[in-house]
Amino acid sequence: MHMPDIHAARRARLQEQTAALGADAALITSLVNVRYLTGLASSNAALLLPAAGADGARAGADGDAVLATDSRYAPAAERDCPDLELVIDRFAEPALAALAAARGLAVLGFEEHEMTVERHQALAGRSLTLVPLGRLVEGLRMVKDAGEIALLARACQITSESFEAAVGCIRPGVTERELATALEREMIDRGAEGLAFETIVASGPNGDTPHHAPAGRSFEPGDLITIDCGARYAGYHADMTRTVAIGEPAAWQREIYDLVAAAQRAGLAAVIVGAEVAAVDAASRDLISAAGHGAHFGHGVGHGVGLEIHEAPMIGYGRTGRLAAGVPVTVEPGIYLPGAGGVRIEDTLVVRAGTGAIPGELLTTVTRELLVL
Ligand code: ZN
Ligand code: ZN
User: Fold this and answer.
1) Looking at 87, 112, 140, which one is the last position of a domain?
2) Fewer C-beta neighbours within 10 Å, C or N terminus of the chain?
């Protein structure tokens, strides 16, 4: 499908859902959701989308959707969103609220998870009835189409190849920051438009902190080094973690590595069509807990990835929902021993109705065997 048609099809689904809520229109203010529905990537935009069949929706075309952005993004909007009515206004959200009121779209659905109290008060002063939309667009975004998966796969390929290139520079004396910088340069050189998130390099005792920010610590013989990295490509976010060793690992290091690796294999095996997300979490977590390390694994087993690095579905204890085919997720169990170090292994894969040890489609490809450097 042609890109504008893909975006129109996404909007049509939201228009149906907005009508089902009883709203006259949806005011989309999450920038990533605006991008998903229009193709416009910007730091200032909003979309007014009349509900299917709403009185204020002009007959016939999809021309009833109105995209507001400021002059910096006007050329991109004109080029990439030819089927949308454009409003160029620095105050995109109030401009669309005024337009909604003027067109008789009195009941306006809004994205309450990203709306501030201050902005809500400003909208409510316009004689509009505001109703929460919930995370409707985030729900639509979960299952990716073939084009999206191709972009995510490219981001993951860049990430895997960059890791394999940068790992060669690991030796005693190199700092966490130097490795992070080398890895980031590899990703950019291989075509990444940017980083999916701040690279994590956690060496030796710093490995006890899952999201340690790389700093001036130099690698030493006997370190485990946890490296969590991802490239961003055409808006899509890769996510991969590997833990490597400098020199032969001690028995306790090999033990927690093997345990995390087994937990990750169990998690990957549990990523099947129809799986409850809590069951995927349990598949990994139960192995770690049974070995006495439950208290050393505090985060969820995984999350969705796409236009955001963390998006629905969240895979964790107490989360609900089922995995559908075409949903990219991560599986990333870890063990973090206070003051000593840690291990995490993470891959990005797409839920598929496949067979074998990993029924899903693995997008990150670096070996999960312990690399001893
Ligand atoms: Zn990660
Ligand atoms: Zn992750």
Assistant:
1) 140
2) N
Domain boundary among 110, 140, 170: 140
CA 240 / ligand 1 centre spacing (Å): 5
State whether 266 and 150 are in the same domain: yes
For residue 363, the CA-to-ligand 1 centroid distance in Å is: 14
At 256 the pLDDT is: 98
Query: Alpha carbon of 36 to those of 42, 149, 212: distances in Å?
Result: 11, 14, 31
Q: Does the pTM of the predicted model rise above 0.70?
A: yes
pLDDT tens, position by position, 64-114: 899 999 999 999 999 999 999 999 999 999 999 999 999 999 999 999 999
Q: Do residue 123 and residue 266 come from a single domain?
A: no
Give the pLDDT band (50/70/90) at residue 62.
Answer: very low
Q: Give Cβ neighbours of residue 189 (< 8 Å, ≥ 6 apart).
A: none
* Residues within 5 Å of ion ligand 1, judged at the Cβ atom: 228, 239, 241, 346
Q: DSSP 3-state assignment of 31?
A: helix
106 Cα to the center of ligand 2, angstroms: 41
